[in-house]
Amino acid sequence: MALAIRLFTPEDYGTVADVAMAAFPGTPVSAEELRYQDEHRGPGYKLQRWVVEADGHVVACAEYDQSAYRYHPRKFIVAVWVHPNHQGRGIGSALHNHLFEALQPFDPLSLECTTREDLPQGIRFIEHRGFKEGMRSWESHLDLSAFNPAPLVDLTGAVAPAGVEIRSLRTLESGPDRDHMLFELASEIRLDVPNVASLTPLNFEHWAANALHSPWSLPDGFMVATCGGRYIGLSYLTADPDGGPLRTRLTGVRRDYRHLGIALALKVRALAWAKAAGYSAVVTHNASINEPMLALNRQLGFVRKAGFIEYWKVLKTE
Question: pTM to 2 decimals?
Answer without folding.
Answer: 0.89
